[in-house]
TrEMBL record:
This is Putative Na(+)/H(+) antiporter subunit E. PANTHER family: NA(+)/H(+) ANTIPORTER SUBUNIT E1 (PTHR34584), NA(+)_H(+) ANTIPORTER SUBUNIT E1 (PTHR34584:SF1). Keywords: Cell membrane, Membrane, Transmembrane, Transmembrane helix. It is found in: Cell membrane. The keyword Flavoprotein does not apply.
Length: 214
């Protein structure tokens, strides 16, 4: 099914503008040694061997450096900070959604004769931060009845599998649920400028999005 156009909050927030950095600049930045990742790799290496020794620590650290050099992780620019109250609120809402959605999914499982219609919904996020996209995906996927099937970081788009979709209103509700999760993530970890952009969006800065489900 194809959803009607939906007006939603818009704008670009996050650490990256829509324009992508050039390849040489990105490559140079990625090729720097990632010492923290190498240290974590050294700890994991020691745990796997079950023997705390200088040789295992050094070999694990060197292996971690080699892996991060050959397979560099994309850089994550983070300029925000942890906001305790917003973070606590985000966790509380997540726990509430977990309980509520678990009850709904269980009721559907025992409702014999009820045909569950699923849909794949496209949701365009308002942030171009890889970190916020990942955290939003995790929040959405943890709740029963919804699962992020694919995330496109270049476009800041999530493809969401949603259970029991019977009308366009259900598709709109699914999109708004994802955008609400994104907002909670930004309010928990975002900078003052990012939160201000969210507030400006809530005040009426709109953008039109086309969503798809099937």
């Amino acid at each position: 099914m194809t959803g009607d156009q939906e007006t939603r909050l818009g704008g670009v927030i996050g650490d990256h503008a829509p324009e992508q950095p050039t390849t040489p600049r990105l490559t140079t930045r990625r090729r720097r040694p990632q010492l923290r990742v190498a240290l974590v790799a050294a700890v994991v290496w020691v745990l796997l061997w079950g023997d705390l020794s200088i040789a295992n620590l050094v070999s694990g650290f060197v292996l971690g450096l080699l892996i991060t050099w050959v397979f560099p992780l994309p850089p994550i620019d983070f300029h925000g900070r942890l906001r305790v109250w917003a973070h606590t609120k985000m966790i509380a809402i997540l726990l509430f959604d977990l309980v509520r959605s678990s009850i709904v999914v269980a009721a559907q499982a025992f409702h014999f004769g009820h045909t569950v219609r699923n849909a794949v919904v496209r949701v365009e996020l308002r942030t171009h931060s890889d970190l916020y996209l990942t955290l939003t995906s995790e929040l959405v996927s943890l709740v029963p009845g919804s699962l992020v099937m694919e995330g496109r970081r270049q476009e800041s788009v999530l493809y969401l599998h949603v259970m029991d979709v019977r009308s366009e209103a259900d598709i709109v509700a699914a999109r708004r649920s994802v955008l609400a999760a994104e907002e909670r993530v930004i309010r928990s970890f975002g900078s003052d400028a990012e939160i201000a952009a969210i507030e400006q969006g809530r005040a009426g800065w709109t953008r039109t999005e086309k969503g798809q489900g099937r």
